[in-house]
Design brief:
The complex is a heterodimer of chains A (379) and B (193). With 379 residues, chain A is mainly α. Helix content of chain A is 63%, strand content 5%. The chains are: A mainly alpha (379), B alpha+beta (193).
Chain lengths: 379, 193
Amino acid sequence: MIADLVIALVFIGYAISVLMGFGTILTWVERKQAAVMSDRIGANRAYIRIPGTKVKLVWWGLFHGMADGLKMLLKEDFKPRTYDWYAYAVAPWVVFTPVLLVFAVIPFGGALTPAKLWAPLAGFFGEKSWPMQIATLDAGILIVFAFSGLTIIGAMLAGWSSSNKFSLLGALRAGSQMISYELVLALTVLGLILIFGTVNLDTIVRMQSGTVLGFLPAWGIVYQPFAAILFLAAAIAENKRIPFDLPEAESELIAGYFTEYSAMKMGLFMFAEFIEIAIVGALFTTLFLGGYNLPFMTDAGFAFPGGGTVAMPHGAVVVTQLAVFLLKVFIVCSFQILIRWTLPRFRYDQVLTFAWKFMFPLALANLCVTAVAVWALRA
Amino acid sequence: MSRKPHVRKQYWNEAEMGLWERSYLPEILRGLFITGGVFLRNMAKWMTGRKGALTTYYPEETRWDYAAANRGKHVLTRRPDGSPQCIACNMCATVCPAKVIEIEAGFDPADTAHPKFPVRFEIDYSRCVFCGLCVEACPEDAIRMAKEVPDLPSDDRRTMWLAKEELLQWQPQGDVAKPYPPAPPGAGKADRS
């Protein structure tokens, strides 16, 4: 019982530090990647001076994230005279918290057996093994959709309570857009659920560690390449990023639903958005890119399609899985940033047309084809 | 009241999109390959220690290709004996639209040709707009603008004031109209002819 608690606390600490780390690093990655993509240098002026010397540590502008955070904390927290200050104050948290909660069901590593890591730990933990996941819930994906749906409420609250027309317009756009795309998002995942026969994310990842046709890794993207593209597009739209950033389109709505927010409240919105990039990356990795496993890798080690196997010690497996998961998430995040700095923004009517007349039928068609294929193969 | 229905204007260069373009994905992928290619190319340059950007790190690096007519930092010219050419007539300070030039005149009875000379001549570069009117206004060719702008940026606005000594003594490259450093007093006339 105590051992369970300790393990849970360790996992929670790990998950929160990973998310916060991603949130901070991604602000830097976004700037720097955009700069490199457009022949610029990018953020490079924030520095830390070693006290007493003239040595300035610039580190490729990594301190800009810290400078931003400090600026947001120290700025004046401007409050509009609004009729609903409670909703106004609570909205950033309603956006921020569900984003963190989504990560609870995402497995970031295989099974962890502390006794195998280091023998003396067996006295406390016994021989038990825990899946590296905060909440091992059978409802996996459903929880993800339930929590990410809550974000809409925060955006709507922020827009309604700001008593500002731009905010209200932004909130309406956010509401309609996010609800539309959430439908597409769920439909694209449904095909995967049909194939794997479960919504438990840990089981889904385990089922992806085999092979298809003898040589391809059995990743979701191999089974459902089309759904993977639709999922990524819908997830970016769900995250309200360019090309779908209509709710906060600067040229039209100033900052959309968080126009009236300043200081750290605004920082929370931004931070939630950046963490959501990482969450989308983690979801995409888990569902379509084989989660924490390298190709042909299981909790025991590698099993290559030629028949060769490489057994690995437990510690090496755990470290590899954690690192591989982070790497995959980072690559997907970087790809999202690439999309954000490549594509121009949709027009608002185009966004909803795109969702309902283009992606929704495609997702349905994908689902039908998958259902027929699964039925034919099972029969 | 009847309204005419809105008819969208057709432009002569209207983009024609076939099924290929309309299906979003191929064209998006093409765009991603372009930007991704630029990213990878620049990143490879950064990784191998070269510079993957066109930008100049301004205060640390300066461009070599300033135009010859660029209006940069001011130069106070000198007579061959080393004294400033300026006669403290205040023309530049009067014409200056940003009012950044401050001159305090002094009297030197020993020099009968130019008894007035600047005791203080200061320019506030935090407000200077680099319009070059001071150069135009000067009757004595005492102030010029070199094409370079070395060391102008600063974190502290009090260090943005540059005084006479600095403007007299910094030596821009390539200003050949006046000999720098000035020739010694005796050789003055012979040098100029």
